[in-house]
Amino acid sequence: MEYASLINNINSFVEESPLNRVETLGIDKIFNQPLVGVAAAEDSLFKQFKDPSVIGEDHLSPTEWLPGAKSVLTYFLPFSEEIRHANRKPGLPAQEWLYGRVEGQQFIEALNGKIMDRIKTDSTGQAVAPATDPRFEWSEDLSSNWSERHVAYTAGLGTFSLSRSLITAEGCAGRYGSVITTLEFAPTKRSYTGPFEYCNFCGECADRCPARAIKAVEGEKKAGMDRSICKNYLDTKIRPRFKPRYGCGKCQTAVQCEQEIPGKA
Ligand code: SF4
Ligand code: SF4
């Protein structure tokens, strides 16, 4: 199967699928066109992710998810201007963001299904989307056995940040997805040398966080978001109030890295 043809399918689905709209709020588009990358299933970074100082032993490699895997197709879907703009106000999450987070997840699941169907029907390839696979799980330490951000980093889509988002050429406000396949596609280049290269540690995300979950440490360039504080805020203040939706994303909007790689501080 031609890689370019698969990318055309993905782009058409994003453009045309009614799942990428929220009619009740008059949102024409949840996501803009995606950035797509490929990681080699045998990339040495997947071994490094098993180190407890990175993610841990529970993080499964592509070949553990799918024996014979050759490639991982990964994508970043930037939220549309309508959704990002609505969430730039401080405080509680905008309705638009909450729909983008939850209905957006349904769109991602449909897109993964579309990619897997295309691979299976047009070729002899096999495909698995870990995020929707029954083996997908979260650990007590709030890490999962498949990190979309780490996969996107491996495929050259972007680097990590103080807020634990991944900053891409289209910013950090958006969602990720991936499909592992036995088809061999050429890996995309990582044009950075370090895991935090695109973050300038300006601290704007820390100032925006209503839960004070992000700590900017002057002069120390390291990820400073405490996942347990963020999760506790979502579980106690957001989910009960906005059920069945949830989300926050204040650290991804009205910040320098919202829709581009920020300049150096
Ligand atoms: S707001 Fe600043 S510190 Fe926070 S992730 Fe973006 S660039 Fe990094
Ligand atoms: S999602 Fe909200 S609570 Fe969690 S770190 Fe970002 S701004 Fe803070």
Q: What compounds sit in this structure?
A: iron/sulfur cluster
Strand order of the largest sheet: 1-2-6-3
Shape assignment: globular
Q: Percent of residues in beta strands?
A: 5-15%
Q: Can you summarize the main beta sheet?
A: 4 strands, antiparallel
Kindly, what is the distance between the CA atoms of the first and last residues, rounded to a whole number of angstroms?
44 Å
Mean pLDDT: 94
Q: How many DSSP E strands?
A: 6
Number of helices: 8
Number of self-contained structural domains: 1
Structural class estimated from helices and strands: alpha+beta
- The low-confidence runs, each spanning 5 or more residues with pLDDT under 50, are none
Query: Order of helices and strands, N to C?
Result: HEHHEHHEHEEEHH
Radius of gyration: 18 Å
Provide the helix percentage.
25-40%
Could you walk me through the main structural features you see in this protein, from its secondary elements to its overall organization?
The protein has helices at 3-16, 45-48, 62-65, 81-86, 95-122, 148-154, 204-208, 227-242; strands spanning 35-40, 71-78, 127-128, 158-160, 166-168, 174-181. With 265 residues, the chain is α+β, with helices and mostly antiparallel strands. It has one domain. A hairpin with a 5-residue loop joins strand 4 (158-160) and strand 5. Helix 1 packs antiparallel against helix 5 (95-122). The longest helix is centred in the middle third of the chain and has 28 residues, at 95-122. The protein binds iron/sulfur cluster (2 copies). The site of one iron/sulfur cluster has 15 residues, from helix 7.
